[in-house]
């Protein structure tokens, strides 16, 4: 049995028929073709699938589609302005070399963005705490922390 949900993703509204057990990450990627959100573990362990839902960072592999009904979702695609200007946090990740393979980057950047929305000048400890659920196998985290610190200056 399918159910109808309404999602606003990056400012665009979608009416969808979904399985009640489908996950938000799969709805974004497979139903809507919004593939910037990455799926790693699928079990809430890696943070690759992080999106911002009504202002809060969430692991979209842990959100069932019905739980997202009526919510506003921001994915990495929505961080860039409609005329192609990157968000300062995206610029900072590039400038600081905080991206290597890039698989964790959308989730990492959205986690950082969610932190900056509530705390414009986070300390290094606050940044490390915020990204503690986002795993990166390449950078050793320091460049990521530096990128977030840099955007606050
Ligand atoms: Fe969602 Fe790993 S894919 S936390």
TrEMBL record:
One of its GO terms (molecular function) is 2 iron, 2 sulfur cluster binding. PROSITE patterns: 2FE2S_FER_1 (PS00197), 2FE2S_FER_2 (PS51085). Residues 3-79 form the 2Fe-2S ferredoxin-type domain. CDD domains: fer2. Pathway: Alkaloid degradation; nicotine degradation. Keywords: 2Fe-2S, Iron, Iron-sulfur, Metal-binding, Oxidoreductase. Pfam families: Fer2, Fer2_2. InterPro entries: 2Fe-2S-bd (IPR002888), 2Fe-2S-bd_dom_sf (IPR036884), 2Fe-2S_ferredoxin-like_sf (IPR036010), 2Fe-2S_ferredoxin-type (IPR001041), 2Fe2S_fd_BS (IPR006058), Beta-grasp_dom_sf (IPR012675), Diverse_Oxidoreductases (IPR051452). This is Xanthine dehydrogenase iron-sulfur subunit. It comes from Desulfosporosinus metallidurans.
